[in-house]
Structure prediction request, 323 residues.
Amino acid sequence: MTTRAVVRGVGHYLPARVVPNAEFEATLDTSDEWIRARTGIERRHFAAEGELTSDLAVAAARAALADAGLGADDLDAIILATSTADLTFPSAATMVQAALGMTGGFAFDVQAVCAGFVFALAQANALIVSGAARRVMVIGAETFSRLMDWTDRSTCVLFGDGAGALVLEAAEGAGTPEDRGILAFDLHSDGRFRSILYVDGGVSTGATGHLRMEGREVFRHAVEKLAQTAHAALDKAGLTSADVDWIVPHQANLRIIAATSQRMQVPMDRVVVTVQDHGNTSAASIPLALSVGKARGQIREGDLLVTEAIGGGLAWGAVVLRW
Ligand code: UT7
Prediction:
């Protein structure tokens, strides 16, 4: 028998304010047409003033607990993937822990930018497979609207705010690719590329800073690396592209999603796409897509999923799981 980390519940939360592309036309030399054509994004949600990353995370976590039929004290751990924690410290995860009323266990943040949820899933899997935890809440939550330079049309139209969460639970599997749960993962980072996507603030500057990106360079790395890491993760699971029911990609740009689907030879009707409604929500985009994909009736129990993401660092990776 093999211990597997199986999805027991999923949920998400999006702030109420929806911002259509056209809203940027008033202040920037841009157009709805350009944004749709180059990115696939049509709208995004922005958090209200005073609505923080941990608030979004708590709402998503509550939805995932309700879906799982569990309470906060049933959890052993919370792992929150974010690059926009409310404060420098403590972790946003401990804020979620307190808000949920969870008095035992432990909570911590994972910071791998847009690849954060993939890294957090790998951490949760390690805790469960090693026996250190039985139930882990894995959340991706971001308020990237707070990192935008509103005069930079090449970045501020791309990002949105939101949160998604999964409850993972230990279950005994047969040790085969037919098991439910996380079957394999593949993680990478390469700090030589740290300057093509970063925030020019932090403790070294005394200010939060703004997101800076060489979009074309990041695009080039994404198209090359995402299919590679997805194939590597499938290979580790003893599976191939032909076994995939759904690619659930990081939602940065529809052209990257389409290029990855083509390289993986998985047709676009087997790809969960939410970028048109959410924009790029960094570490929140994959759990949001999982939750929306399930709600749409696309993702069903037993389906084989590949999630893949790349972002600042560069950091990238993929997880293969059977829902
Ligand atoms: O999640 C983290 C990972 N991030 C990503 O995966 C993002 C990866 N990069 C991208 O998605 C794309 O590179 C962008 C969407 C950022 C840009 O698209 P692109 O097709 O690579 O455009 P570009 O940067 O080559 O720019 C083409 C033109 C430029 O004008 P010139 O120099 O040709 O005159 C830009 O100034 O488009 C211009 N441009 C815009 N025009 C209207 C850039 N942003 C805008 C805009 N509206 N918002």
